Amino acid sequence: MAYTQTDIDNLKRAIARGARRLKLGNGEEVEYFSLAEMRTALREMEAEVAGNAQAGAFTVSYPRTSRGL
Prior knowledge:
mainly alpha; 2 strands; two-stranded antiparallel sheet
């Protein structure tokens, strides 16, 4: 799902109010179990909106040796 800045702002307001239920921009309603879960969701939303979401990304590492192996 593509999150928007409005979704982020709404979640921040819900956290500030202590509400655990949130209505997203697409009409979907979400109920969180804890404040920790809400904060995790907020970080994921902010990363996606900022373009830093790592979904599907991968890294390549090359082994380094000191004996020419």
